[in-house]
Amino acid sequence: MDTRAQTADSVREERKRQVALGYRVFAALGWGDLGDGHISARDPERADCFWLLDVDTPFGEASPEKLVLVQPDGSVVGGSGRTNLPAYYIHYPILAARPDVASVAHTHTAFGTPFSASAARFEPITQEACIFHDDHAVFDDEEVQVQSVDCGERIARDLGRNRGVVLRNHGLLTVGATVKHAVAWFVMMERVAEAHLKARDPKPISHNAALYAKADLTTDEYTNSVFDFLVGHHLQAH
Ligand SMILES: [Zn+2]
Fold this sequence. Notes:
By secondary structure, the chain is α+β, with helices and mostly antiparallel strands. The protein has helices at residues 3-28, 85-97, 112-116, 127-131, 149-159, 179-198, 207-217, 220-234; strands at residues 37-42, 50-53, 67-70, 76-78, 103-107, 136-139, 164-167, 171-176. It has a single domain, classed as 3-Layer(aba) Sandwich (L-fuculose-1-phosphate Aldolase). Helix content is 45%, strand content 15%. An eight-stranded mixed beta sheet has the order 4-3-2-1-5-8-7-6, with helices on both faces. Helix 5 (149-159) links the parallel strand 6 and strand 7 (164-167). 42% of the residues are buried.
C-alpha cells in the first residue's frame, strides 16, 4: 500500500470514528429515537460518496462497523446495511455543492423543529447564537419530507456558504469541514433555537460584538473542544 492510500485509510477511519461518536452523542441527548436524522462524512478517496449509519442501527449503538458508504445514485457500495432515500436526498446534494464540507448533521430536536415552524432567522441573543450570525439560512419550502434529489439541491442552494440552515417545519442542519465541526455546531444550533423559544423580549448583541464573539467561538481549537467535551461528558467509553 502506498503512502497516499495509507493516508486516505487513516482519514477514513478517523472520520468514521467521529461519525459514530456523533450519533452516540445525539442519542445521549435524546435525539434520533425515531431513527430521524443522520450524520454523514465524505469519503476521502471517493469524494462523491459518503458514510452514514446503517438505517436499522439505533443511534446509541453506532460504531464505525455499522456505517455504510452511499454512492451518487443512492445505493450502498460499502459497509453492510442500508440507508434510506431521505438521507441520500439531503446529504448527497449538499456534499456535492460544498467541496469545502466533509460532514453534514441533521436530526429532529425538541427546540430546533418547533423553532423551524416559524421560518424565522436567528438573532444574536446568546454566545452560541453569534456562531450563526450572518452564517445561517432558512429553507422556506414545503417539501418537508425531502423526497427528491431536487429538494436536496434546493436545500443546498439556500444553505449557500453558510454553516447551518433552518429547514422550515422540519428542523436544523449544519455542515462542517470536519465531522467534529458539523456535530458541535449542530448541538450549539439546537441551543440557539432553545434560547429563541425561551427568551422573553431578548436584547440582541450588536452586529460588531456578535462578529467578534463569532470569530472567537468558531476556531478549530474551540470547536474541536466542544466535540471532545460532548464525547467526554455523554459517553462512558469511546
Ligand atoms: Zn429530517
